[in-house]
Specification:
Its main location: cytoplasm. By secondary structure, the chain is an alpha+beta fold. Helices cover about 40% and strands about 15% of the residues. A hairpin with a 2-residue loop joins strand 4 and strand 5.
Length: about 230
């Protein structure tokens, strides 16, 4: 009959170190449950390497990246040829920007001149339209003076003088005078009279005086024209 003993065998679990079988618990919580403060990365648990993921999927500590990017890079020495190319590129860029600035200034000046020219033309057109509306009254005064119906120094004569002064103030001038060469741009021929005394079309008589302001014609002069036989 075999003898049983209570002595442990070499492979018995009782021979192993009790601490070897104890589980290792790592507290990786970022918030301290006791104080409620945020733990430093070293307190939250060991990292698995820069830029790598830990066992629980958390990213590793990357606090050193800011220092990496904030550090000044190494000085690079350019060769004489490369430096010349760089200087030429800078000069070309400055010249291009200067040309763009001059072009923009020229366009601005042209725009201002065009606006002023259009404004002056519009003003002249409005003034011409207003003065044109007074021409019939001025014609009536001229006919009355020709027939002796307007005594010198009378009120009507003073009114006629003031109207003509206002016309002169705006640069209004009369066109069409007896003996002047006929100009179809300013004169309207109502009658043609053959004459041996003229070498070309000439105004023989003015039927109705014409007016112009600057180069703008308010009304053509109606005239009788003498033409060569």
């Amino acid at each position: 009959m075999a003898k049983h003993t209570n002595e442990p065998t070499p492979d018995s679990p009782d021979d192993k170190d009790p601490s070897a079988e104890q589980p290792v618990i790592r507290d990786k919580r970022r918030i301290d449950p006791d104080t409620g403060d945020v733990r430093a990365p070293s307190e939250a648990g060991p990292s698995t390497g820069s830029g790598a993921a830990s066992e629980d999927g958390d990213t590793a500590d990357i606090d050193g990246i800011d220092e990496l990017f904030s550090a000044e890079g190494p000085d690079v020495e350019l060769s004489a040829e490369d430096q010349q190319i760089l200087d030429q590129a800078e000069q070309d860029l400055v010249a291009e920007m200067r040309n763009d600035m001059l072009r923009a200034q020229a366009e601005l000046v042209n725009f201002r001149n065009r606006v002023e020219r259009d404004r002056a033309a519009n003003r002249e057109a409005v003034v011409a339209e207003v003065l044109r509306s007074f021409l019939p009254a001025l014609d009536d005064l001229a006919r009355a003076e020709a027939h002796g119906d307007v005594p010198e120094g009378s009120g009507i004569a003073l009114v006629a003088q003031r109207i003509r002064g206002s016309f002169e103030k705006y640069g209004v001038r009369t066109v069409g005078g007896k003996g002047e060469p006929f100009d179809p741009h300013y004169h309207e021929a109502l009658v043609q009279l053959p004459s041996p005394d003229v070498q070309g079309p000439t105004i023989a008589d003015v039927i109705e005086i014409g007016y112009a302001i600057g180069e703008r014609l308010l009304r053509p002069a109606k005239v009788a024209v003498s033409v060569p036989e």
